[in-house]
Design goal:
This protein is α/β, with parallel strands linked by helices. It has 2 domains: 16-180 and 330-442, 3-Layer(aba) Sandwich (Rossmann fold); 182-325, no CATH class. Helices cover 39% and strands 11% of the residues. It has 15 helices and 9 strands. The chain has helices at residues 16-22, 83-92, 94-98, 115-132, 146-158, 181-184, 186-199, 224-235, 246-259, 266-284, 304-310, 318-328, 353-363, 387-400, 411-425, and strands at residues 31-33, 44-49, 55-60, 67-72, 102-106, 138-144, 170-174, 338-343, 370-375. Strands 1-2-3-5-4-6-7-8-9 form a 9-stranded mixed sheet, sandwiched between helices. Strand 6, helix 5 (146-158) and strand 7 (170-174) form a beta-alpha-beta unit. It is globular, with a radius of gyration of 22 Å.
Length: 450
């Protein structure tokens, strides 16, 4: 099975003119590394640290398609970047190299919810690749989870409509957090206020009180282990259903039914609504509140009236919303083909975020550049081996045809191609050609917005 890319490129050194054009800052060359065992045995791997401090890994297959898949990772991570993060990403996305494509991924130069900075880091890695490794025939920007918002922002910044020399030829977004920071995290504020109404231990009543949208105060000493113990005491998350107390069972059922997340993801979302909220408020919005729940009516408990009377209410600060949105909200101004894929049962990034992103692209006048594919999957971090080569094959063919609306791939075509790739990469095709997600407001409670 071959991909629709003309010829087969070799990792040649680009001429000086291409180097000058592709690099605004000279970068140190990457160093050779032993490839992870997950990659083909004849692949070549490189790694290094760029001029801004981000670590990266690069992998080149022996028989290169000429395609570079530039990866923006999810998370985001908090704290200083660590080189092993990029190595782990390469292992997870080894399928890209197995399918014949080069792969490059950055840790980003800083941790935290900083979308534009991560987009800049991703573009810096592309330029480094061109300078020191090879000149791709086609560059596909791939974003996963939160990294999909990074990739969308990078495409807006470096491949906008009308760009004479866009940095990217196409964009692939998988299980993306694509509602923007000002909408994608509303349900996590809901989780915090409902959890506190039920459990009253985050913070505890004898601890200093703070507004829950803050995540944590700047000087808080709470650890993840501490929070896990508090959630265990209230909800019995580590216990089997039979071993939970009746009170734990009822509180957990209320939380799951009202917030509409599975039991297995409660603690993860609670962590994000604590330390990631702290990062946003302390480092991105100057201590102001970017999220609110005024007007939200929570439903699904045994007594909704009592619950709505008990939860804390917060109004988002317009300045914070504007500042956070400018960094994290997509605007849809992408001038190259965009293909998204999303597991319909994703417990981390709700599939309804895709509807919000479609509205964004349409409102920007770029709806014709978007195709959305959905899969009958419940995993967030990875779908299956054969689906990604099928998505890339479809996206590359579309880009090669000029990205015109008449040449857009259909979900049915992606499903057909996925079935063919199973012969090489094993089973795993669960594309739902006729699926259409609901509006985001059907999944996350409506509220007043500044």
């Amino acid at each position: 099975m071959t991909l629709l890319v003309a010829g087969c490129a070799t990792p040649d050194t680009p001429p000086p003119a291409a180097v000058a054009q592709a690099n605004q800052t000279a970068e140190a060359p990457p160093q050779g590394q032993v490839c992870p065992a997950e990659l083909p045995p004849d692949a070549r791997c490189l790694s290094g640290q760029d001029s801004a401090g981000a670590y990266y890994w690069i992998a080149m297959p022996k028989a290169w398609s000429g395609v570079l898949v530039l990866h923006a990772h999810g998370g985001p991570e908090l704290g200083a970047p660590k080189p092993e993060r990029s190595a782990e990403d390469l292992k997870r996305w080894a399928i890209m190299v197995k399918a014949g494509h080069a792969w490059a991924g950055s840790t980003f130069r800083q941790g935290g919810v900083a979308v534009r900075a991560a987009a800049e880091d991703t573009e810096r890695l592309r330029r480094l690749f061109v300078q020191h490794v090879a000149r791709p025939q086609v560059t596909v920007l791939h974003g996963q989870s939160w990294g999909a918002s990074v990739a969308a922002k990078a495409a807006e910044m470096y491949a906008a409509p009308g760009a004479t020399q866009p940095a990217y030829d196409a964009v692939l977004l998988s299980n993306g957090v694509l509602g923007g920071g000002t909408r994608s995290y509303d349900f996590r504020l809901d989780l915090r206020v409902v959890y506190q109404a039920l459990c009253a231990n985050h913070p505890k009543m004898d601890e200093p009180q703070y507004p829950l949208w803050m995540g944590l105060p700047p000087d808080a000493k709470l650890s993840r282990a501490d929070l896990a113990e508090r959630a265990e005491a209230c909800l019995g998350l580590r216990q089997s259903a039979e071993r939970r107390t009746p009170e734990q069972t009822q509180r957990l059922k209320t939380l799951v039914d009202v917030i509409r997340i599975p039991e297995s993801s409660v603690l993860g979302h609670l962590n994000w609504a604590t330390w990631h909220f702290q990062d946003v408020v302390q480092k991105r919005t100057q201590g102001l509140n970017p999220w609110g729940n005024v007007g939200a009516q929570y439903r699904g408990s045994m007594d909704d009236r009592a619950l709505n009377a008990a939860v804390a209410r917060y109004a988002a600060d317009p300045q914070a919303v504007q500042h956070f949105g400018r960094d994290s909200d997509p605007n849809g101004q992408i001038g190259v083909p965009v293909l998204t894929v999303h597991g319909v049962h994703d417990p981390i990034a709700f599939v309804e975020l895709e509807t919000q992103f479609r509205h964004t692209m349409v409102q920007a006048g770029q709806g014709q550049r978007l195709v959305q594919v959905f899969s009958d999957d419940k995993e967030h971090s990875y779908l299956s081996d054969p689906v990604y080569p099928a998505l890339l094959e479809s996206l590359l063919a579309w880009a090669k045809a000029g990205g015109e609306a008449l040449n857009k791939p259909t979900p049915a075509l992606v499903a057909e191609r996925c079935n063919r790739w199973e012969a090489q990469f094993g089973p795993g095709c669960r594309v739902l050609p006729d699926y259409r997600p609901a509006e985001l407001d059907a999944r996350v409670v409506k509220r007043q917005r500044p």
